[in-house]
Amino acid sequence: MKIRWKILLILLMFSLLPLIIIRAHGLNTLTDLGSDLQTQTRVTLLERATDNLAQMAEGTAARLNLEDRLYRTTIKTLQNEAENLLTKNVPSTPHSVPFITTPKGAQNIPKLYVHPDYKKSAMMGRGMRLQQGNQTISHKKGDLIDLPISTEHISFWLSQGLSTNEAIPSINKLTPLLHTFQACSQTLNELALWQEIALETGLQATFPAHKSIPPRYDPRISHWYKEVKKTLQTLWTDPAPDPATKSLCYRLSSPLFNDKDEFIGAASLVVPVGTAISSALLMSTKKNVKIMMVLSDHKNQANKEKLLVVGRNEGSSNEKASIQARGHLWQIPPEPEWIYESNPEFTTLVKDITIQQSGVLQIKDNGIPSLWTYSPINKSLALLVIIPITDFTAEADEAEQYVSESISRQIKDTTLIALSIIAVLGFVAYFVSQNLSSPIRRISEAVIKVGQGDWGARAELHSKDELGELAENFNLMVPQLREHSSILQALSLADEAQQNLLPKSTPKFSGAEIGAKCVFSEKTGGDYFDFIDCATCGNDIFATAIGDVSGHGVSAALLMTSARAYIRALTGQGRPLVEVVSKVNTLITEDCAQTGHFMTLFTAICDTKKKTINWIRAGHDPALIYDPKTDSFDELIKTGLAIGVDEYYLYKENFTQLKAGQILTLYTDGIWEAHSPKGEQFGKLQLREIIRDCCDKPAQEIVEEIHKQVSDHRRGLPLEDDCTVIIIKFL
User: Fold this and answer.
1) Which residues have CB under 8 Å from 553's CB, separation 6+?
2) How far apart are CA 603 and CA 585, in angstroms?
3) Closest CA to 664 of 706, 609, 604
């Protein structure tokens, strides 16, 4: 990598690293803050919404109880007043011309006006195009249109088959009921849509007056009328579409009797389902909220854990609409609709509705987390409002969005700052590197020339800084490198010469098998071994020697070379072993007088036919003799002074008789003194174990195995001393 890039990276590391750390820490802090804020706000809003909805649901239940009493008191008043009027025998005269509606048309229509609480749902083919003034207004099916009424009159409906003459007596009797209707209307305060009196004759009196009853309508065949006639009790009936408005309503009906306790008809209050529901509960909803009337009391066992939707309200969020107008927005689903969620919370909701218990639960609606608020209306009906949780957590989502935008701005700003810093640092790094790289380039060119063999190359640089010192030291180093190169070349030649002095191969004899190997610890070592033929002694006799010069390197190698030359010269003349060693000791002592070096030596003359050895040990490790038959080791341990210490020392020759199969081992101390990484020595015991385990192998394989295990023992550590081994197996 170029130095300019290194400088740039260093500058970037020390300038951008703090910025990156601060930025990362700041972003993490903002992210954690936003997450905590959003979570805490969400939890608070949900808790608040849940509490509010629960209070509204409880308030709705309490209100229903109070309103039920009011409804029952009102229906009782209508029942008593209607019975009194119908059972009087005194002929009654009408106070005014009655407003009569029949399947064929209306008679004596009073002035009707539009009231905001009264709407009706437009049906296909009817009410689609209405005339208002000079304009024709089109409506779609299901749209709410105004239903004209009059609170000053009663409308009398004559069912199919009932003539006006037949109905007039009853109409005249019921006409005074107008004041009762008006009084009850004020008492109910918009809680009822219609007040009705239906008679067995097919006559129905309705307040407020209107002319929107369908032509085929007959109250006597209605479900509510049949239930009252059957039970003869005051009762609520399940929600059903009102004939005039088409909105979902339920009725509180009470039977009418004559003076003979015979059933003559029924009084009823028509109540839109929306009027019985807390206005606060509806007004708080939004467009994506589901408001339903559900039924839990059903006989089908397969639907036991489900809720039947008997009505839906789609416009309750219109705050301008009155309570009664909102009630008109309830419609019956065109097809049976069931609600079911497979979770314990929904099971709890169904049970609560069954026992008329209100509450609020968190349940997923089609995979969307929502709050389900439920409140009983009567024994079988309940109001169910499903509101997505996101409607309540909008503030938390806005806070999270604000934090996200802040983090984005932070990232953008810090990125611009970082890019600006990189640009400035790149500019600085370029010029700084130019000032640094030019001197370094000169030094590099000089180094290349020296590497190519130009010892006269110099770095021409005269600055006073560290680069100037580097150039000056380089110029001083080149002559020294030249001198060291010459020395290394000489050492290489010496090493090559030393390797050539060692035997290239072991000699072959009929009565013995020989293996040997030397491994130096440095380029030039101090160990020595040799095999010398004794022509004057016979073909089955040879001399061998192994030695270890103190120290290492060139001086040790030179001393070893001298000793080899002396031993070879003297031994080859056929002189006795004692004379040879003594003469070598005298010569080596003279050479080492001023150096302090010495040499240990073990030399022997082996007769492979007679299996005898004559040997002298001069301070060297004793030779080992292993007998596989007895599995025993003997050491040739006679004492003798090292070569080069005392030129007058008298050496003694020793004699040992060997047997066929025995193994003679000569070695230097580098073998057993080799250390492992833990500082443990290889040891002589392990050397003996190798000889014992490999006694059946050829001599050279035993030598190789010893060197291998020494290397494994070191585990990669360099040799501390030269390692030499000679194995002679007597056959």
Assistant:
1) 522, 523, 524, 526
2) 13
3) 604
Q: C-alpha angle with apex 148: 144 to 152, nearest 5 degrees? A: 145
In this structure, are residues 292 and 331 in contact, taking their beta carbons and an 8 Å threshold?
Answer: no
Phi, psi torsion values for 224, nearest 5 degrees: -65, -40
Tell me if the pTM is above 0.70: no
**Which run of H or E residues covers position 538?**
none
- Per-residue DSSP letter, 150: B
Please give the pLDDT value at position 285: 45
649-669 burial, b at 16+ Cβ within 10 Å, e below that, comes to bebebbebebeeebbbbbbbb
- As to burial, measured by CB atoms within 10 angstroms (0-12 exposed, 13-18 middle, 19+ buried), residue 388 is middle
The predicted structure's pLDDT at residue 322: 52
Round the CA-based radius of gyration of the chain to a whole number and report it: 61
Could you report the average pLDDT of every consecutive run of 10 residues in the chain (731 residues)? 65 67 67 66 65 60 67 91 84 72 90 84 51 54 79 93 90 91 87 91 94 91 93 86 84 92 93 64 58 74 79 56 54 78 86 82 85 77 81 68 74 78 73 72 79 78 75 80 71 64 83 90 74 70 88 74 83 78 89 80 91 92 94 91 89 92 93 91 94 93 94 89 92 88
b/e 79-103 (16+ beta carbons within 10 angstroms → b): bebbbebbeeeeeeeeeeebbbbbb
* 207 alpha-carbon distance from chain centroid: 69
Single out the residue of 327, 284, 377, 322 nearest to residue 194, CA to CA. 327
Residue type, 187: T
DSSP H or E segment with residue 631 = none
What is the helix (H) or strand (E) element at residue 182, kind and residue range?
helix 178-188
Task: Indicate the helix (H) or strand (E) that contains 524.
Answer: none
Provide the Cα torsion 520, 533, 649, 599; round to 10°: -10
Decide if 496 contacts 557 (C-beta within 8 A): no
288 within 8 A of 308, measured Cβ to Cβ: no
φ/ψ of 725, rounded to 5, equals -140, 140
Cβ–Cβ < 8 Å for 195, 207: yes
| Long-range contacts (CB closer than 8 Å, 24 or more residues apart) made by 253-262 | 253/75, 253/224, 253/225, 253/227, 253/228, 254/75, 254/76, 254/78, 254/79, 254/228, 255/79, 255/228, 255/229, 256/79, 256/82, 256/83, 256/86, 256/197, 256/199, 257/83, 258/83, 258/86, 258/87, 259/87
Closest CA to 78 of 185, 191, 171: 185
Q: Which residues contact 298 (CB under 8 A, 6 or more apart)?
A: 304, 308
Q: Return the DSSP state at 183.
A: H
Sheet holding 654-657, edge to edge: 527-533, 541-549, 599-607, 612-618, 654-657
In 466-520, beta strands by DSSP E: 512-519
- Coil, helix or strand at residue 509: strand
User: What is the number of alpha carbons within 13 Å of residue 612 lying toward its C-beta?
Assistant: 7
Nearest-angstrom CA–CA distance, 665 and 615: 13
Dihedral sign for Cα atoms in the order 387, 389, 394, 395: positive
The secondary structure of 664-703 as a DSSP string is EEEE-HHHHT-B-TTS-B--HHHHHHHHHHTTTS-HHHHH
**Using an 8 Å Cβ cutoff, are 291 and 370 in contact?**
no
Residues near 426 by beta carbon (within 8 Å), at least 6 away in sequence: 8
Residues in contact with 84: Cβ distance below 8 Å, sequence separation at least 6, in sequence order: none
